[in-house]
């Protein structure tokens, strides 16, 4: 099980207010940063990794 401090597609999606499948698509198209950790083939990111990515995304409104 992933550490509680790591985010899956679900947590990232909630953070940026999209569906988890949208986040999966971002990764498939190289738009998401590489995962910080992979467990059992599942990718996970630290919140600060995603927050930095969000701050640099085109059209960022935060």
From TrEMBL:
Q: Could you identify this protein by its name?
A: MerR HTH family regulatory protein
Q: Mind listing the GO biological process terms from this record?
A: regulation of DNA-templated transcription
One Gene Ontology term of the molecular function aspect: DNA binding
One Pfam entry for this protein is: MerR
The cross-references to InterPro entries, in alphabetical order and at most eight, read: DNA-bd_dom_put_sf, MerR-type_HTH_dom
Q: Which residues form the HTH merR-type domain?
A: 10-42
Name the domain of life this protein comes from: Bacteria
- Native source species: Streptomyces harbinensis
């Amino acid at each position: 099980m992933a550490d509680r401090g790591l985010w899956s597609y679900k947590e990232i999606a909630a953070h940026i207010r999209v569906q988890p499948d949208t986040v999966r698509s971002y990764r498939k198209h190289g738009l998401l940063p590489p995962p910080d950790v992979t467990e059992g083939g599942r990718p996970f990111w630290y919140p600060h990794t995603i927050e930095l990515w969000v701050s640099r995304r085109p059209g960022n409104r935060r």
